[in-house]
Amino acid sequence: MQRRFQGPPTSFIVIAVALIQVLGTVFSASHQAALRPLDPLAFMLLLAGPAALAFRTRRPAVMLPITLAATSSYLLLGYAWGPIVLSLAFSIVLTAAAGLRWQAWLGAGICAVAVVLMAVLAGDETGLVRASAGVAWAAILVLIGEGFRRRGERMAEYRRRREAAKQAERDEYRLTLARDIHDVVAHSLSMINVQASVALHLGTNDPEKLRPALEAIKAASKESLAEVRQLLGVLRDDAPLSPAAPPSLGRIPELVDDARRGGLEVRFENSVGADRAGPTQQEAAYRIVQEALSNVRRHSGAASAVVLLELAGNALRVRIDDDGGGLRVAAAGNGLRGMRERVEALGGTLGLTPLEPGLRVEANLPLNAGQEGHQR
User: Does the pTM of the predicted model rise above 0.70?
Assistant: First the structure.
């Protein structure tokens, strides 16, 4: 697709060139002795060139032939000399700017040949000098149009790259939100499922302990609904919500308590201060622990787990061990894939190590990545 120079509005160019050609020629004709006085045909030719410029966006190929024919006819009929060539000059520039290079150079060549022939027929030495200047100007007009065309292409490429970068940013953002939604839903539904199983068991064998299990289900469902509503609201461009603060290391004990209420024995060890890791690392650590504990409860059949947070050089190490069946019970799914994507986005590593029995999930998050914070 050919790129066209935008520039001023077409109507402005047409009106301005028409006024200059008509008024300038009338003024010039009053100060020279022309072979033929200005008549209706002369004014039609003076307006034909500017009128042709109106096609610069719809059919740019017709501009130069019309202006060239109108200008040549005007001069050959012997009318008074004036700014009749203005529309021709504009048509050469706009044709080159529209990407019609061969047509622009052909039109400029015809003008150059005509100027040289007129100078030779006149037999005036100064005419040859003026003809040389005319030839040079014909080439300059094409080069000006080429410059406009290349500038338009650079601007279009810049806009394309900027839009592509924005789209990539939006896609990455939505992928992050999708991972968050998966983690929240998987964790909450897993805990609700465990607590519902406990409630069913207690409803038959120990009704007095039924209330705490139901309260845990209510609290988990309320919290997960609020967080999912928040995340989904951010996806709605028509009604965005104010994003909540990202989860931090300080909220990991809540995950541990949820797992304990589900019957899992969890030991939590944390030697990392909240000021040692940035918001991005803290959120990633929270989501990794959340997904790992959900997997332990849903798939591994483990009875106990250990959650460890520590500094390892210039990285935050997150480790979750369990005594369940490991990956032999369930293949790696979206949860583990999401954890790996989170870690790799920060330049870290994620390892899955089989234990006897159980599985170790270990993530190393560089502390110097994403220190500007995670923004939604």
Answer: no
User: Treating both helix axes as pointing N-terminal to C-terminal, what angle do 86-97 and 101-122 enclose, rounded to 10 degrees?
Assistant: 150
Cβ-proximal residues to 43 (8 Å cutoff; 6+ apart), any chain: 22
Q: Which residue has the tokens 């033929």?
A: 36
Any residues with CB less than 8 A from the CB of 5 and at least 6 apart, and which?
A: 94, 97, 98, 145, 148, 149, 151, 152
For residue 242, pLDDT over 60 is answered with: no
Q: Tell me, what amino acid is at 14?
A: V
CA distance 305 to 365: 21
For the residues 31-49, what does the mean pLDDT come to? 83
Q: In what helix (H) or strand (E) does residue 322 lie, and over which residues does it extend?
A: strand 315-322
Q: How far is CA 24 from the centre of its chain?
A: 49
Beta-carbon contacts of 37 under 8 Å, excluding residues fewer than 6 positions away, are 29, 80
**CA distance linking residue 34 with residue 29, whole number of Å:** 7
Q: 79 pLDDT exceeds 90? A: no
Burial category of 208 from C-beta neighbours within 10 Å (exposed 0-12, middle 13-18, buried 19 and up)? exposed
Contacts of 339 (CB under 8 A, 6+ apart): 287, 288, 291, 292, 350, 361, 363
Burial class (CB in 10 A: 0-12, 13-18, 19+), 114: middle
What confidence score (pLDDT) does residue 307 get? 93
Instruction: Give the C-alpha separation, 86 to 49, whole Å.
Output: 9
